[in-house]
Protein 1
Amino acid sequence: MNKTVIVGGGIAGLATAFYLQEFGSSNYTLIECSPTCGGKITSTSRDGFLIEGGPDSFITQKPAALNLCKRLGLGDQLVGSNTGKQATTYVWSGGRLHPMPEGMMLMTPTMVLPFLRSSLISWPGKIRMGMELFIPKLNSTQDESLASFVRRRLGTEALNKIAGPLMGGIHAADPEKLSLSSTFPMFQDMEKKHGSLLRGMMKRPKRGTANSSKPTPMFMTLHGGLQQLSDALVAQLPAHTVRSGCTVLNVRPHEAQYQVLLSDGSSILADHIVFATPSYVTADLVQQTDPTLASRLRAIRYVSTATVSLAFRRADIAHPMQGAGFIVPKSEGRKITACSWSSAKFPHRAPDDSVLLRVFIGGALAEDLAEQDEPALIELARNELRTIMGITAAPILAKAYRWNKANPQYDLGHGSRITEIEQSLTDLPGLYLAGAAYRGAGLPDCIQSGIIAARSIAERVHANHDEYTSVCIGT
Ligand SMILES: Cc1cc2nc3c(=O)[nH]c(=O)nc-3n(C[C@H](O)[C@H](O)[C@H](O)COP(=O)(O)OP(=O)(O)OC[C@H]3O[C@@H](n4cnc5c(N)ncnc54)[C@H](O)[C@@H]3O)c2cc1C
């Protein structure tokens, strides 16, 4: 009774399974089409280098990922991102790398002197950003794009050089299309509350000053790479509950349950289905059950990206690489969007005499570039690093990962689309959604979506059980 099937063994599906167990509802099967679970999390150790193909860290402000690592006994494996100068992000502008002014909170300066001294923004650009204090707030309930918001409040230069490549880059998105309320709602809240971002920043409580001796780093990862997290989750799930190398082909209503059809010809009857798959996959799977839900799910666009990891001997690189890496504004006309200096950003990523860099390609503004084959991606990354960082040496290691239609786009109207999707689900008891497409694409949000799905199922199972018990007691 009360069988659950989880479709997809990425972090959202794995978290759903783990928390179902935690909530005492362990009658589930997780189906993953790849031979191994983890989805976009993939870490490889080679010749002393630790290469992340997908995510390389998680934000700690949203606690779900950090808590899960601790719950899995990985507390001693947690590694914080480097701080101080090593955390500086650079911006490629006008043919050189400029450090982001100290104290920038994403798009908003919080320290006057470093901002005024910065070589990144021109004087007219700085004056325009300072005028933000006097720009009246917009009294509108309409969804606004990142580009429109930043242009309106801080000016075009702040959009082109900072917010676009940095905040648009996190979502591999076009800032003109990215919904601010669905991705960075705190900035809209700040405008509403304080009438100005600069004023809001001045009034915010200072991080880690309340009582803590050492604030939690903003980003964390695991000593052996993030795959430690997905591997630890799989290890906690009883072997019979996970079926990898098996694709869910269809899900259809069957009396009061759902029938899940699998690629090996078998099927499972389930009371609860959690779709932890990309929304376009989920759309195909629910097409027969609810075509309206399917078309709402298909309305969430995905774009392709690629990452290229390149390792070099330290002695072969003149650049000091003191920082977390650099971002590249679209207006610069280059073929990469960003580069993480992985071995400077986190410890244990490369041997002491070497460095590891990770180049980002593609996204909404240059999707076709990410769809090339691996040698072409590596060549492109090397050419760009030659121009930007002066690296002419041959890499001692190169590895590209292509992420075809992997990044969900939180386009304008995303919030309403999610509300409509959730409305459809209220008519389909037993169906749940988890994962990156809906209420946050970062790992903590994906984990949280699994917790919410698991909790809803456990509550329903226990409610039925209580009813069942009370009926038994009554008779
Ligand atoms: C290059 C890149 C870098 C990123 N960097 C970061 C970062 O640093 N920090 C961060 O927090 N986030 C980052 N993200 C985002 C984050 O990694 C993803 O949003 C998250 O991993 C998605 O998890 P998920 O479980 O929703 O989906 P997925 O990981 O996509 O898992 C879905 C699973 O479903 C399986 N599946 C699909 N169809 C079927 C089917 N029919 N039957 C059975 N199984 C099926 C797939 O094989 C897959 O394993 C990054 C993403 C990318 C692409």
Protein 2
Amino acid sequence: MKFVITPSFSEIPEEWPSIVIGAGPAGLTAAYVLAREGLKPLVLEASPWIGGISRTHEWEGNRIDIGGHRFFTKSVLVQELWGEMMDEPMLKVPRLSRIFYRGKFYQYPLKILNTVGNLGVVESVRMLMSYVKARVFPVRPEESFEDWVRNRFGDRLYRTFFKTYTEKVWGIPCTEIRADWAAQRIHGLSFVSAVMNALRNSGNVKSLITTFDYPRLGPGMLWESAAGKVVEMGGAVVTGARVVKVEHEGGRVSAVEVESGGEVRRVRCGQVISSMPLSVLVRQLVPGPPEAVREAAAGLRYRDFLIVALRCRRADVFPDNWIYIHAAEVRVGRIQNFRNWSAEMIAEGGGTTLGMEYFCSRGDDLWEMRDEDLVAQARREIVSLGLAEEGDIGEEGHVIRELNAYPVYDAEYRAHVTTLSEWFGGCATLQTVGRNGMHRYNNQDHSMLAGYYAAMRQLGRPGEDPWEVNTERSYHEEQVLAERKDTDVTEILASEQTPVE
Ligand SMILES: Cc1cc2nc3c(=O)[nH]c(=O)nc-3n(C[C@H](O)[C@H](O)[C@H](O)COP(=O)(O)OP(=O)(O)OC[C@H]3O[C@@H](n4cnc5c(N)ncnc54)[C@H](O)[C@@H]3O)c2cc1C
């Protein structure tokens, strides 16, 4: 479906009471709710696309997510919104995702027979002994991620299931990641519970069959549909329109300046909901906020991401939706098989599209690599892993780079976010929402909830404080997650996909 953009940039009037910045899940949810309630918001989106990180790209008839996007939520409100925003139900996709390490597939959630079978009895016993050793002689003081995980799982298990993947995701050695990050992300999980889960899984295969929701044309389908509905209800969505200045006076937002192709327009407004990165928003404020707020914003860090799409002649290349690549000898972190998400993601003519995912940081060698070199590397890696043969993979590929894909939870981020949320909390007419808008590991559902509550606030309706979304609640969910049979440590570490998000 093609969404409608109206008006064009040059038609944006000089005044629009309610403005939403960003057409990702947070911004579009806010805009949808405002439009549904009769307010006609103007959505300004910097990129040419709809959906933010949750968009779906097209490449020669193939559709590619920015990393596969599962739809999963515990919120009935979000489920209802999904139902309203799209005119057709989502697919129920069976889930299979395994870990690839040292030439073997480990099923996830771990199953005891598969795990011991892959490791061998001798290595399994060594893992057990290394766990006992870690319990008797723990590392003290426990400072790094490595210390934290080794103390709870033992050195051998840490090296097999935690070290390489975590280092790929974050780009720094596990000795440099703080222990409290692990405590927050892997809260409640231990060696004993992991083994108990694996035992339970092996005994009850039926309970392992899980599915997730997915629009048949990828997540972008939902967001393009939502944008279309905002327009149908009288709002406007303008792409290629980057907000470059946010003016305020007397504690109230007063105007935004927006730029497109060198042309700048100033739009007076009374309300703004922004989903742009907090660090950018603070730089754009006129007048600038106090120094402490500027310093907090400047201290926020991000991890970037790129995906290399490859065409594969064979459709049955592997049965998983995606595979985690723990193998240290390649740089790819995860491989998507988009046919296994939805057959309609694939262009006519058969085969499949693979998404080779790389975690990186702007300016590093991966980020700076030329597209043709990235494609060549991706082709080499999939073949060297033994997952496909050279003749199966097309010569051409497509590279998508995504800045600010992951808000970094470093030692200082929490204090910075507190400073920023307190300052923005004092300005009811300028609300900041979403993943980078709040510097939170939001999945789509949490970003949507923040957008929803910001819209309710603007409408003067009761609702939660958007800053409360994905905080305490997520803590409770982590506890629930830790008890679940399908606890998925790898996903928690990658910080996507799980109810933790
Ligand atoms: C690899 C990966 C896999 C993921 N997998 C899942 C998954 O399986 N399930 C799931 O639910 N979630 C997943 N997520 C998370 C999901 O992508 C995000 O939670 C969601 O897109 C966040 O929505 P948002 O609206 O807060 O932010 P964004 O999606 O980042 O949208 C913000 C929008 O604001 C625009 N913008 C920025 N600055 C400006 C400006 N100055 N002016 C105008 N516009 C601006 C941006 O262009 C963007 O379109 C994944 C994320 C990644 C990186």
